[in-house]
Design brief:
The structure holds two protein chains of two kinds. By secondary structure, chain A is mainly β. Chain A contains no helices and eleven strands. In chain A, strand 7 and strand 8 form a beta hairpin. Helix content of chain B is 0%, strand content 50%. Chain B is built from no helices and ten strands. In chain B, the strands form two sheets. In chain B, strands 1, 3, 4, 8, 9 and 10 form a six-stranded mixed beta sheet that branches. In chain B, strands 2-7-6-5 form a four-stranded antiparallel beta sheet, with no helix packed on it. In chain B, a hairpin with a 4-residue loop joins strand 6 and strand 7. The relative contact order of chain B is 0.36. Classes of the chains: A mainly beta, B mainly beta. At the A-B interface, strand 4, strand 5 and strand 10 of A face strand 3, strand 4, strand 8 and strand 9 of B.
Chain lengths: 115, 112
């Protein structure tokens, strides 16, 4: 079974631009979560989607948004990029995203550099 | 942002020794806890989990201990190997919720 696939793996943007990151979950997984990972803040929860609905979100500004499609694939978008948005963005899928089946399967991430 | 175990300590152990990685969690309502391992250039990978109705769970060479009284988790790795070198994260969630909160992580170095 294929793992979680994230694209692109690396990208460089300049301040003020926007970026869209894509995530394909493991087949059969309906929950997709996004995390931002930086050396100073660790893994910060962005949001979680299940059946095209956002069920929870973290403490990030509205510039960070996401969506999930009917095939469970997900995208996240960051608009008006700032230098501080440089990070590794990790996508994780799980069967249903709640406790008893809450194990997360992570992709390798999309490393965003904002210049 | 929300975090479990805000400090990022580094642990250095000799190959063959046992390792103990500690973590403090923040939410007393959390009832499901997971340890993840992240190797360089990869996403975190599940190691072992434990539910709040347990205080100990064992896997292959790993043991997780949970102390709900002081909101503390630990991961014990027996006979640590060079391949165990990585960053280890504890994570918490509520079984009725939809988000997993991660700690800051601990970097484990294994000296050959």
């Amino acid at each position: 079974k294929a793992g979680v696939t994230q694209t692109p793996r690396y990208l460089i943007k300049t301040r003020g631009q926007q970026v869209t990151l894509s995530c394909s979950p493991i087949s059969g997984h309906r929950s997709v979560s996004w995390y931002q990972q930086t050396p100073g803040q660790g893994l910060q929860f962005l949001f979680e989607y299940f059946s095209e609905t956002q069920r929870n979100k973290g403490n990030f500004p509205g510039r960070f948004s996401g969506r999930q499609f009917s095939n469970s694939r997900s995208e996240m978008n960051v608009s008006t990029l700032e230098l501080g948005d440089s990070a590794l963005y990790l996508c994780a899928s799980s069967l249903e995203g709640r406790g008893l089946s809450g194990e997360l399967f992570f992709g390798e991430g999309s490393r965003l550099t904002v210049l | 942002g929300e975090n479990v175990g805000l400090h990022l300590p580094t642990l250095s152990v000799q190959e063959g020794d046992n390792s103990i990685i500690n973590c403090a969690y923040s939410n007393s309502a959390s009832d499901y806890f997971i340890w993840y391992k992240q190797e360089s250039g990869k996403g975190p990978q599940f190691i072992i989990d434990i539910r709040s109705n347990m205080d100990k769970r064992q896997g292959q060479r790993v043991t997780v201990l949970l102390n709900k009284t002081v909101k503390h988790l630990s991961l014990q790795i027996a006979a640590t190997q060079p391949g165990d070198s990585a960053v280890y994260f504890c994570a918490e969630m509520n079984t009725g919720g939809f988000k997993t909160i991660f700690g800051a992580g601990t970097r484990l170095f294994v000296k050959a």
